[in-house]
C-alpha cells in the first residue's frame, strides 16, 4: 500500500478517485464520500477485505481543515507494544515524544486497520474523539485535538470498543 509506512506523512494525493459506476450502491457510496470531503467530521470507513477502504481517505481529505499536503497515515497493526504512545505521544519528565496525533496536527490522520488496534488504545482513541483532546502517556496536560480523524476497519470484525468509536464518529461509510 503506497504511503502506508507507519508514521510516514504522505504528500498530495494524485488521482484521488471518487467511486464510479451507475448502480444505486455506487451512487450512495459516491454521495457519502462527497459528504465526507465537504466536512471536517471524523470518518469511519467499514468494508470487506479488498473493498478499497485504503483508497477512500485520499478523497475524504478535501476539506478546509485538512489540506491535501498534510495527510498522515498509520497502520494499526504496526504501532508496536505501546500503541497509545504511538498515537498520543509520551512524556517522561521534560522529554516529550510526539505521537501520530501531534505529527498530523492541522491535517488528517488515517488509521488503517482499526480492528488491529489493541482494545485499550481503541478506548483511549474513542475518549480523545469524544472529549476533543487527549493526554500523552505519562503526561498530565490535555492536548487539544487538532486533526481530522479517518479510520478504516474490516467489515464483521467490530468489537465492543469499536462500537464506541463508531458512535463517536459523525460519518460512517
Number of domains: 1
Class based on secondary structure composition and strand pairing: alpha/beta
Regions with little confidence, pLDDT below 50 for 5+ residues? 1-16, 63-67
Q: Could you tell me the mean pLDDT?
A: 75
Describe the largest sheet.
6 strands, mixed
* Secondary-structure element series: EHEHEHEEHEHEEEHE
Strand order of the largest sheet: 1-3-6-9-2-10
CATH architecture: 3-Layer(aba) Sandwich
Tally the helices: what do you get?
6
CATH topology: Rossmann fold
What is the end-to-end distance? Answer: 20 Å
Q: In what range is the share of β-strand residues?
A: 15-25%
Question: What name goes with the CATH superfamily?
Answer: P-loop containing nucleotide triphosphate hydrolases
Q: In CATH's first tier, which class applies?
A: Alpha Beta
Q: What is the tally of beta strands? A: 10
Cα shape: elongated
Keywords:
disordered N terminus; single chain; 6-stranded mixed sheet; 6 helices; two-stranded antiparallel ribbon; 173 residues; alpha/beta; Rossmann fold
Topology diagram in text:
Elements: E1 8-10, H1 24-37, E2 43-47, H2 57-60, E3 71-75, H3 83-88, E4 90-92, E5 95-97, H4 100-103, E6 108-112, H5 119-131, E7 133-135, E8 142-144, E9 148-154, H6 160-168, E10 171-172
Description:
By secondary structure, the chain is α/β, with parallel strands linked by helices. The chain has one domain (13-172): Rossmann fold, CATH 3.40.50. It is built from six helices and ten strands. The protein has helices spanning 24-37, 57-60, 83-88, 100-103, 119-131, 160-168; strands at 8-10, 43-47, 71-75, 90-92, 95-97, 108-112, 133-135, 142-144, 148-154, 171-172. The strands form three sheets. Strands 1-3-6-9-2-10 form a six-stranded mixed β-sheet. It is elongated, with a radius of gyration of 16 Å. It starts with 7 loop residues before the first strand and ends with a strand.
